Amino acid sequence: MRRPLSPTLAKLAEQELNETPDRIQQDIIILRVWIRQQPHLRARTEDDFLIAFLRRCRYSLEETKRRLDRYFTYYNLFPEIMSNRYITQRVLDINRLGICLYPDLPKCDNRTALFIARFGKLDPNQYSLREIYHFTSMAMEIVALENDYASVAGICEIIDLEGVTSDGMRRFDKQFFRKWWNWLHDCSPLRIKEVYVINMPKDIQGPIMFLYNVLSMQVNYPIRVLKTSEELFDHIGKASLPEEYGGTNGHMTESVAYMEDLLNSYRGYFEQEYKYGTIEELRPGEVAMYEAEFGVNGSFRRLNWD
What we know:
Layout: H1 7-17, H2 21-37, E1 41-42, H3 47-56, H4 61-77, H5 79-82, H6 89-97, E2 100-101, E3 113-118, H7 129-146, H8 148-153, E4 155-160, H9 166-170, H10 174-186, E5 192-198, H11 205-216, E6 223-225, H12 232-235, H13 252-265, H14 267-271, E7 277-278, H15 290-294
Parallel strand pairs: 3-4, 4-5, 5-6
Antiparallel strand pairs: 1-7, 2-3
Helix pairs in contact: 2-3, 6-13
């Protein structure tokens, strides 16, 4: 059964996403029928899952169909992220590192949900960036299903670069990041509304600013590089930030515990992952190729800052 939205979120969903409560069930039925009619597609059909994608696509049925198809196509195209998504002890350990944090209902001034990425906390000798994004894809799917602020109002992302070194940037896998970027913007059920980059070490400013300039031209939301973390107060406000960032919205350890509880509650959900994906031999028309999704001459092939 669908959760009723708060009056504030219900109004926002109607104004920004074209959500009409009386029409939601009809849209879900249309999507389920369409999924059954696709010989190549093995997709989830739970209410909350389909609603998350409808909201991401502002209730455009055609765009929702395309995003759902791309999402499950990436099970084949991006197995580094979309395969073997089980709740293992290693996944729980990655969550406990606090590299990627999803605080419980962290409402910003514009009612978006907060996501904090702290890549300086990553020890590349213990965990790979691929493992972090593998965890992140699972966490983002859970948040899309559980956090109405995230699915309706979108995500406000803080990228904290404190502790990131020039050696870490040299080990940065550009091809993998390009695939992740495409997944995030073409497939993910969550909508990013704004990004703030803080605590950038001087010795990595060159490559980060180059990447910032490339990405800024490809998105329709602001990406802001702040000189000090205190500038977050002007954009987000202390009431929305964790205490570790000078705010009053709880501790980051609470965010880790919140996500661990969610991960454990979704064990059965991810154990069903083997059922989903696409069988490209059965796809009507042309088979989706790697080059078609990621391009041969795309801008990310020019990310060369070594």
